[in-house]
Amino acid sequence: RGTLGSPAVVPEGYAGGVIDDAHLERRVIRLEGEIGDELANDVIVRLLFLRFEEPEGPITLELDSPGGAVVAGFAIADVVRALGGVGTRCIGRAHGTAALILACGAPGQRE
Predict the structure, then answer these.
(1) Strands (E), the chain
(2) What is the C-alpha to C-alpha distance for residues 108 and 37, in angstroms, rounded to an integer?
(3) Looking at CB atoms within 10 Å, which of 24, 54, 64, 77 has the fewest?
(4) Could you report the per-residue pLDDT of 20-32, keeping only the tens digit for each?
(5) Residue 86: other Cβ atoms inside 10 A
(6) Among candidate residues 65, 53, 5, 62, the one with its CA nearest the CA of residue 25
(7) Measured between alpha carbons, how far is 105 from 58 in angstroms, rounded to an integer?
(8) Whole-model pTM?
(9) Cα 42–25–5 angle (5° rounding)?
(10) DSSP summary character for residue 110
(11) Phi and psi at residue 86, in whole multiples of 5°?
């Protein structure tokens, strides 16, 4: 099962929840491990949170994943493309659906 590289953060009802995470303070989301529904939901919540908190701020999605569930991967890729301006960085491997997500990064911000 994949992890985000730090303790799971789930905002309480999204409205009153506080996301306290060193990576998020740097506006970096780390996706590690096999992509599944739960991991996709966590990544999407973090992406939306960062965009809401600072609409014009940079966001970087770091990937180290063997891939995983196609629908979950497409969900992340769709949000990355819809938000625009999200940089992607491979910090290990990016196979299968992780490669798709990596390719959805903003032009000039794919590493």
Answers:
(1) 28-32, 59-65, 86-94
(2) 29
(3) 54
(4) 466 667 888 989 8
(5) 23
(6) 53
(7) 12
(8) 0.79
(9) 45
(10) B
(11) -90, 120
